[in-house]
Amino acid sequence: MYSSSSVSRIILIYVSAIQLLLINGKLSLNVTNEYLNHTCLVSQGKYKLGSEYDKLFKNIMKMFYKNSIRGYDLFGDSTFTAILQCRGDSYGPKCRDCFVTALAALRRRCPWYKGKIIWYDQCLLSMDSKYSVGQIDYDNNFCMSNAKKVVEDGVAFIQVWNILIGDLTKLATTGDNYTLYSVGEKRYKGDMIYGMVQCAVDLSRKACQECVLYNRFHFQVCVNDIRGARVVGRSCTFRLEFYPFIAKQVRNI
């Protein structure tokens, strides 16, 4: 027989276990907004408080805060380019919260640098001291991969993930209402592979295709035979996982 205190402890442990499962379930769908990486573009120099660059920067960030509710914003002239790009499913308050977090982190990590980029799970915030709208950034890209490898038939897996990313790129850049964003899934043996492709809002559909193709080739060693990886950049990103990481990831490719 259990005492009342023992029963209470068992119930508490059971409830805690259920809560932990729910939390882990949410994390698998990236409800959190994980910091990924940042870079300070040191070669572009610094600006001073009260300078024309500082005034422009502050005005554009105010505009971004206002417009972040729609999921993106963009500004470009000869002396300053800024881009806010939230993940395709992160708009409204999610995008605004990510923007606020990213801006505060950039000020802390790259103080007074004119050029800087920061990546979070749900958004990208980029600033440049020259006009770079529509141009593919081939320099500021990186890969994050799972430590686990595909155990069997790696060649078949490479074929599947290449087809999936190719199909998602096509989906993101074709049609009258193309969005430069797509998600989908494809079966590999007994598993399902989930994928996402997204390009920055300033790219044309052709530039988006070129960007993804470049990163697929450049980072293939990081992605091949790995059970989950993402290639992230200023201009485009793609991701592959063996679990759904977007809440409404239901499209079969």
UniProtKB/TrEMBL annotation:
**GO CC terms in record:** extracellular region
**Where in the numbering of this chain does the Gnk2-homologous domain appear?**
35-132, 138-245
Chief place where the protein resides: secreted
Short name of any one Pfam family annotated for the protein: Stress-antifung
The UniProt entry, under InterPro entries, shows:
CRR_secretory_protein, GNK2, GNK2_sf
Query: Where is the protein localized?
Result: Secreted
| UniProtKB keywords | Repeat, Secreted, Signal
- Family per similarity comment: Belongs to the cysteine-rich repeat secretory protein family.
This chain belongs to which protein, by name? Gnk2-homologous domain-containing protein
